[in-house]
């Protein structure tokens, strides 16, 4: 546990390093920050912080830079201040403004991702809740021709999915209406996972009808297709603008990991597992994927229960954690009631 003074010196060093991406010396800290102690005391505190592994000296004649451990101590102190009433109120107002600017859920997701990138100068990712866990509000069957129909699925959070289905034999519109009624008993208020596990009322009766079984298969396929495009990301160019990634080769391992949807979902789901209100912050080597050892992931869950999504920011370990944590909180609040 760092003393208040060492925490203050560490915070000043991190703030300076975040702003300029250059090693920080004791003279810089003394001249630019009101630390309330002499230059000799600052030098002594820097030596103690270095011995403790919180900062490092890249070259003998250079200043110091934060280590992952130093960032962790700094972030833990930031998170300990979360939940202050005035900060909560500011985040709530910003989230309300973001919600008001979007007419539909898809618009809100895109605008939230865009706002995160602008606020943080990092890569932003909004991972929508798994479609398979969303409760279904309505299933409609619309006859297009006697041999073709449109299946429309509306979830309780307002998302709409549709898919055309074709019949080998003519199917009258009144038969489609009867099947729609049967499916209403099966689907309404249940998720696809619940339906597949046989929890939908009327399931046994409905499955005796071949058209119902066919329609159910079409709905499952439709929703699974929607589930493959859960991630909305923006800000690769913002990452390239950071000194750490000025050479695109440095960013390549990160992008290779993020372009693998399976790996991405695993990383974000794991990063947000421990979220209980405050965002989760994984710094450098704390990330499961070795390719992400040079970045930090700030993530937060939104929504309720199994039908929850994740909002995240990925950037260099030299990120403005205070700004990013606040931005992720705002984004999570904006998406949380939708």
UniProtKB/TrEMBL annotation:
GO MF annotation: an example: DNA binding
Gene3D superfamilies referenced in this protein's UniProt entry, alphabetically: 3.30.450.40, Heat-inducible transcription repressor hrca homolog, domain 3, Winged helix-like DNA-binding domain superfamily/Winged helix DNA-binding domain
Family matches, as InterPro entries: GAF-like_dom_sf, HrcA, HrcA_C, WH-like_DNA-bd_sf, WH_DNA-bd_sf, WHTH_transcript_rep_HrcA_IDD
SUPFAM superfamilies: GAF domain-like, Winged helix' DNA-binding domain
Protein name: Heat-inducible transcription repressor HrcA
One of the GO biological process terms: negative regulation of DNA-templated transcription
Any coiled-coil regions, as ranges: 84-111
Function: Negative regulator of class I heat shock genes (grpE-dnaK-dnaJ and groELS operons). Prevents heat-shock induction of these operons.
Protein family according to the UniProt entry: Belongs to the HrcA family.
Entry keyword set: Coiled coil, Repressor, Stress response, Transcription, Transcription regulation
Domain Heat-inducible transcription repressor HrcA C-terminal positions: 106-325
Secreted recorded as keyword: no
UniProt xrefs under Pfam families: HrcA
């Amino acid at each position: 546990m760092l003393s208040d003074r060492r925490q203050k010196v560490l915070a000043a060093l991190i703030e300076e390093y975040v702003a300029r991406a250059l090693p920080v010396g004791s003279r810089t800290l003394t001249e630019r920050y009101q630390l309330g102690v002499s230059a000799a005391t600052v030098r002594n505190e820097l030596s103690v912080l270095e011995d403790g592994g919180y900062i490092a000296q890249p070259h003998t004649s250079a200043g110091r830079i934060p280590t992952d451990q130093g960032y962790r101590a700094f972030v833990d102190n930031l998170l300990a201040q979360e939940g202050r009433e005035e900060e909560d109120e500011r985040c709530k107002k910003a989230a309300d403004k973001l919600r008001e600017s979007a007419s539909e859920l898809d618009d809100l997701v895109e605008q939230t991702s865009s706002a995160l990138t602008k606020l943080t100068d990092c890569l932003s990712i909004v991972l929508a809740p798994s479609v398979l866990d969303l409760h279904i509000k309505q299933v409609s069957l619309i006859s297009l021709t006697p041999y073709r129909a449109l299946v429309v699925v509306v979830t309780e959070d307002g998302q709409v999915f549709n898919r055309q289905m074709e019949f080998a034999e003519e199917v009258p519109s009144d038969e489609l209406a009867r099947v729609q009624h049967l499916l209403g008993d099966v689907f309404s208020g249940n998720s696809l996972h619940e339906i597949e596990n046989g929890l939908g009322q009327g399931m046994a009766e409905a499955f005796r009808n071949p058209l119902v079984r066919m329609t159910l298969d079409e709905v499952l396929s439709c929703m699974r297709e929607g589930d493959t495009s859960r991630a909305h990301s923006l800000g690769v160019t913002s990452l390239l603008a950071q000194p750490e990634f000025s050479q695109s080769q440095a960013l390549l391992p990160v992008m290779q990991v993020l372009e693998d949807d399976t790996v991405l979902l695993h990383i974000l789901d794991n990063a947000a597992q421990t979220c209980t209100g405050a965002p989760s912050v994984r710094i450098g080597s704390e990330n499961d994927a070795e390719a992400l050892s040079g970045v930090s992931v700030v993530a937060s869950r939104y929504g309720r229960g199994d039908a929850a999504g994740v909002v995240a920011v990925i950037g260099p370990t030299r990120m403005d954690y205070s700004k990013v944590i606040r931005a992720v909180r705002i984004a999570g609040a904006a998406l949380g009631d939708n």
